[in-house]
## 1
Amino acid sequence: MEEEVKSLNFIEHIIEEDLSQGYSQEELRFRFPPEPNGYLHIGHASSICLNFGLGLKYNAPVNLRFDDTNPAKEEKEYVEAIKRDVEWLGYRWDSERYASDYFQQLYDWAVELIKMGKAYVDSQTSEEIAEQKGTPTEPGEESPYRSRSVEENLRLFEGMKNGEFEEGAHVLRAKIDMKSSNMLMRDPIMYRVLHKAHHRTNTDWCIYPMYDWTHGESDYIEQVSHSLCTLEFLPHRELYDWFLDQLVSEKKLRPKQREFARRNLSHTVVSKRKLLQLVESGVVSGWDDPRMPTISGLRRRGYTPESIRNFADTIGIAKRDNVVDVSLLEFHVREHLNKIAPRVMGVLNPLKVVITNYEEGKEEWLDAENNPEDDSAGNRKVPFSRELYIEQEDFREEANRKFFRLKLGGEVRLKNGYIIKAESCTKDEDGNVTEVQCTYDPKSKSGSGTEESLRKVKGTLHWVSIPHAIEAEVRLYDRLFTDATPDGYKDKDFMEFVNPASLNKVTGYLEPSLKNAKIGDRFQFQRLGYFNVDLDSTDEKMVFNRTVTLRDTWAKIEQKN
């Protein structure tokens, strides 16, 4: 029992303490509250895993609530994308909620605050309000409209709701303390006028509540027990509690806000504004571009929900912000795909090999293991013929003893097939090798049981039979940014660090078993990496994305630098 307690993260310690102090198991409820103004990214995945993971651990309901209070930036497209991402990660919410469900209740409560003398309508410009806020070391100044009568405030606030005023003419502010050391407590704005259609309420409302006013009250309405936010909301907690202090009935559970640290990922950006800039500038093809850190981008690239959940579990929950190396995320996807991905052969930089002593027109089908990590995966048949493709980099005319691939006079084994020996090669007018002539040992076929088949050679190459090969577009994706912290410089724009080699499209030649692969299917191209079928694939043209290389190639590059 003591070991289990030691393994708890600090959020779980808080919950356990609350349970020991009088909370009942039935009172626990969590929520994941995204704003539908963009696609979810890997940072959101950690929050999703935290909240829904707590729901599973404590057998407690988890709401999916959309904090949709800004019609200028929010769209139904984003709502649907968020729901799709949460489901894909393997989670189910208890109740689908929207802050817009509570617009009337929030308005009624705001009226109550006005009547209590704790809110007022301010008619200053946003610039004037900002100027009067003061600084962290200097107190703010009270608005000249702070002493408006309750009657006038009620009349103006109703006029705001009824669309009688232009945007920016008035705002509703809470009346707290313009001298507070916490600048968020200096009469924060609760409502602003916006004449924009909302994705759910259309034009029913001309005023929209601000996040700080909406969030805690929404938690209270839904009877959320623990409202978990990222660390930048720590200063907001005082305001969260102040609003609840004014309105909460002690008969109902009072939600508790607690904060955890963001886990930023190296070689990427997660700001929705910056991600949108990448999309609008054409650096990427869209929110689901496989180079994007969005959950939809990772899904399209071939990441598995299990690998993302394992990544989130590994980095855990902390109290301080830090940057997690993207190689850890890549490690988890490699680890999972290694267990589940069928092995196939494909050649991406082809060099023709002709086996001169293999009968012309002959073909045979060799046994190949689908996945050595999965005993139930079985075998498949791979065609072999006189003419094959191997990778260009797997052949050299001359090479030192440390080169264990094909060279003139040298032998290698073809995966699942025969031992071949390079006898000669043909070059073009520029001196580039265009064809290698080889001989093969007919008795050396893998698995045949002959003495020759057990003969050891140091190199084993992947290959495809030219007459049987499928031609496909293969998209070789790499990290989108060359710098580990592209948005961490005051004097440089993050766009300066976009990796020009983040996408390379090549024509690949693949074994025919892939002909029936479906969109989303994942494979290991032996010796090359993990790939999946992209949604751009058609019956006429298959498209594959490289999910990740077999090894971390960036580690060596960064060591050199």
Note: Residues 1-6, 557-561 have pLDDT under 50 and may be disordered.
## 2
Amino acid sequence: MDPIARTKRSKILKIMGIATFMLVVGASWLAISTARYMKDVLREQFNEQQLVLARHAAQRVEANINHAIDDLVLLNSLPAIQYCDTQSYEAMLLTTLPVLNGRRIIAIRRIDRQGSQIFAASEQGIVIRNLGHVQQEPAAYLSWAEDPANKGKTMGTALYPKQGAKERSDLVFDLITPTYEEAANAAHPYPSRAYAGYIRLTLDVTHMMHDIMPPIRSGKTGYAWVIDSNGIIIYHPEKSFIGESTFEARSNKGPAISFDQINRIQREEMMRGVEGTGSYYTGWHREIVKPMEKLFAYSPVHIQGPYVNYSWSVAVAAPVQEVESIIDSVYTRQFLLQALVVSIICLGSLFVVFYERRWSSELEHEVELKTGHIQKYANELESSETKYRSLVESAEDLIFTVEPNGLIRTANLHMCRIFGINPQEMAGQSLYRFLPGKEVQEQLSCVRKALSSGRGEKTETRLALPSGNFWFNIQYIPVKGDGVEEYALAIARDITERKDIEQQLINTEKLASLGTMAAGVAHEINNPIGIMLGFCDLLLEKMDPGSMEYNDLKTVERHGLHCKSIVERLLSFARVREEYEEDCDLNANIESITSVVKHTLDMNNIELVLSLAPDLPPVRGDSTGLQQVFLNLINNAVQAMGEKGAIKIETRCGSSRKEIEAIVTDRGCGIKREYLDKIFDPFFTTKKVGEGTGLGLSVSYGIITRFGGRIECRSVTEEEAPGASGTTFEIILPASDEVK
């Protein structure tokens, strides 16, 4: 080979060598940077997967504690718990056993106002008023419970070791709520509503965590651990850590290792209830003892307003090596192949191209696999959200969110049905569209109070809705929105039936007490009146008819007989008449009494409209009593309308043929809202002095309830609805036993 050719070949070889070297360097740099990028991607995706696990675990812990709080509030409302009478042993057994058998609740204690334990329930049984030494409760519990501002609230204590436990790692904590004597039972028909101590429920936190945390597994060997807001470890696979400070436990096990990174994250984020992901260095993992980096994600456990405020943190951690081992194995083989490329340029180049494709395929497969796992968890979360949304939509309570200005954000289907609006149109509507301004202002006042205090607000209110008048127990719970925006979650439960029953019980008690008084008064007055009328008759026999003395005696006799009729009316109110209860024709009785008052109605220019349903079954009752009821209602309507108006009497079958309804409607001046709860009280009247005794409606109420029926009143005054005032009395009577 000539020198020129050799030189040319040498240059070509040098160029090829440099090109090969640059190619190898470039390929190596590209591989290293790609590996780093893919490691970062996989680390981020793996931590997001761990965050999903941490959220799920935190939600389960929150649900368990919320269930325990619900059980505590329910027990505190029971008479057997409030009074703790020794006769209530069986009732307390029946109420506490279901609570002790679930939710990891291990003890229920009732503490009196002096701090002495008067009732304790646990797995060993129930003890009431133990005569032995009584342990005094901490003064802090008593001072908190007896503060009236804490009525209806729940306080959570700090974690402490379980009494009698063999290991310090058995942790429990208490939920405490003040007890007031507000419930009524046979022994306490009139609650004092006074402070009576508190009820204390002990929750086994360690066993609750052992039910939830062990199944959580991230990667091959990853696990979950939990700390509270003070940095105390509540759960950890390393049992010696439980109950210890997270900062001291790690330092004691690995004094030569710096835990500044994980300690900073715990102080600044986890203990403050912040959610996030990160990494830290440690010296061990399960049985493996060596320095390593771990990926971990953490999610807070929030138990907040209107009961207690907790901020625990659930963390899920796994070694970085488990995540990066896949990429390390792939790139190790790649570097070996690149070394082979240096020796065999052509074959190596082809092999590298082939291997790069194979490597990309494997990497895409791994990414798809991890993405599939994440998608699976996302689908499970979406399914859970759908389930809870279905529960809200199928609830019979009104559930909606509202802003402080009255704008409705969301509402369930039941609320849309009650307000009579399409669900698609409800969002964005204002409460002012559906309710009078005064009622809206009352509700918005509760919303603003809840948002300003950060605690739930409860109210019982009567709302006039398009579908009728309802009583609701409404609870407003503050909800943090995006940024600084706030709104309230409202849950309104229909308590109309309960309110009606309460009102009927109140009226019955009033009738019973006033009936006893009326019987005594009538008895004391009746004897003197009889003597007066007897002597008056004797004197009349001695006087000449037509004389002044005779006329004076007749006047005395007339007024005496008037007093006797008043006494008889008092007696008819005071006792149940011993008359035979029969079945009667409701329409016939109405027609009979309207024929009697027809002349009076004509004299006052009052139109009578009868709309009596044909073929009504007979009702339970007697004709005399029913005629007296309708006579009282017609007379009241005439006096409310003056000299012109209309009275409509309608009869119809109820929701079934087991009930018959009679509706008496007038267009009079109406009854003010503040008087509606008093109109059936004996001697209550809005008429002028001397124009009424106040017994008509109370006697009518007694007659209807004696027949097993009920009477209800709705009224609108001229001030509330100008030009549309009036009163409607609805009488519901049971049908005769023969048609049932």
Note: The radius of gyration is 41 Å.
